[in-house]
Write a structure and sequence with these properties.
Order of helices and strands: EHEHEHEHEHEEHEHHHHHH
Strand order of the largest sheet: 3-2-1-4-5-6-7-8
Radius of gyration: 21 Å
Number of helices: 12
Number of strands: 8
Shape: elongated
Length: 273
């Protein structure tokens, strides 16, 4: 870790995504005494303090003591949160938004002029340090702010800088992406049971197949079409299965699903405003 790890960070709204960030920072060596968390419920506060050894404080204390504010509340709750704490946030503090669908301009309109905002979309594989986090700079965020955000999120998995105009597509593709894979695995396990396999056997077969396929995609550098073709023998079992998938419109369904997720991200921003 570099000396940027000495920046006090507050995770405001330590729900599922906020906890992912908190636990990832701790695993990467970020000092617990430099981390704060906020939450609405006292029981949740006690749980986080016991589990991670961090201080759980109110929002105003977090703003006063932290140099980086990672906001992880639900998009529909952000406006009320910024009404509460926005006037207390000095312009030199970095605000990191983990709120799906909300552009950095949403924050800038409610914060002191010149406040740097960085938008981050990560995903739940952060739990096993295999997340994908897309990072975008707001109007006043500098390269140093992006570098700090990358240092915070790189220990959780991969990071990628993207223009903010692409963030709704990122949300649809990788932010929601784990759910699509889990749904596919669930369906394949059910198919294995239908074909006569015990559930646990089907589960182990599919999970390891998914892991192996993902590693091949990452490490081989080959296009997925080439990797698929390598499994697909003429007149064999795989091509028969692929034909059925195409017949049932799986590819078109995926395209429609991701468009729906992207559009929903835009709706969340409109509703929050």
């Amino acid at each position: 870790m570099t000396d940027t790890a000495q920046h006090p960070v507050a995770v405001i709204g330590a729900g599922k995504i906020g906890e992912l960030v908190l636990s990832g920072l701790l695993r990467s060596g970020w000092p617990a005494e430099r981390l704060l968390a906020t939450t609405r419920r006292q029981a949740r506060a006690e749980e986080l303090a016991l589990r991670y050894g961090v201080r759980v404080v109110d929002n105003h204390t977090a703003v006063a003591e932290a140099e980086v504010l990672a906001i992880a509340v639900k998009p529909q709750d952000v406006a009320a949160l910024l009404d509460e704490i926005g006037p207390k946030i000095p312009a030199e503090k970095l605000v990191i938004s983990l709120c799906a669908g909300l552009p950095t301009s949403f924050f800038s309109r409610r914060l002191a002029a010149g406040t740097p905002v960085v938008r981050v979309m990560t995903n739940t594989p952060a739990l096993v340090d295999e997340a994908m986090s897309a990072i975008s700079a707001g109007e006043h965020a500098t390269g140093a702010h992006l570098a700090l955000a990358e240092e915070m999120f790189t220990p959780l998995g991969g990071t990628l800088r993207v223009p903010e105009s692409q963030q709704d597509a990122v949300t649809a593709l990788s932010g929601s992406g784990p759910a699509y894979f889990y749904l596919l695995v669930e369906a394949m396990v059910d198919a294995g049971i239908l074909l006569g396999l015990p559930r646990q056997v089907a589960h182990e077969l599919i999970v390891q197949t998914a892991i192996g396929s993902a590693v091949m995609l990452r490490d081989s550098g080959e296009h997925p079409v080439k990797l698929r073709e390598a499994v697909t023998s003429p007149a064999g079992t795989t091509i028969s299965a692929v034909r059925e998938l195409e017949k049932h419109g799986v590819r078109a369904a995926l395209l429609a699903a991701l468009e729906a997720a992207r559009d929903r991200a835009g709706e969340l921003a409109a509703q929050a405003d």
